[in-house]
């Protein structure tokens, strides 16, 4: 196309390492030393995790749609939603087909885990990655729209498919 650009790979990888990998390693190390205490006290990590995820989603939505430079009309947003739902359903269907082939050694429970886990994408990792990779880019909020739609779509589709997949799994386990 006659254009070029440079990407600061070292900077991006070091920031991603510090943002994602280091906290994970520290958490695993600390967990070994306070595991017994945590099992006795049973802090509400589920509620804390949900609140943090909700706050990340909320702040990202605010950053995205409060940006006056975002040029996203309703028709484009509807098309994006349709494409994301189609992609999500296609991925779930393909993983279901591949995990239930005749020569597959996966159990029905394995198949359910594969269908839901392999197509899962998280805002908690995606948003920091976008902010690091596209730091300083004026249309960052526009780039985050598909991820903001994908995350709720996977939750909605997953909850809609639970009864169907549960009945399939129960019938296969008998």
From TrEMBL:
Domain of life of the native organism: Eukaryota
Gene3D superfamilies: 1.20.1530.20
Recorded GO CC terms: plasma membrane
Alphabetically ordered keywords of this record: Membrane, Transmembrane, Transmembrane helix
InterPro entries in alphabetical order: Na+/solute_symporter_sf, Put_Na-Bile_cotransptr
Transmembrane segments: 12-33, 45-66, 78-99, 111-137, 143-165
Signal sequence coordinates: none
Stated family: Belongs to the bile acid:sodium symporter (BASS) (TC 2.A.28) family.
The protein, known as: NTCP7 protein
Biological source species: Cettia cetti
Gene responsible for this protein: Slc10a7
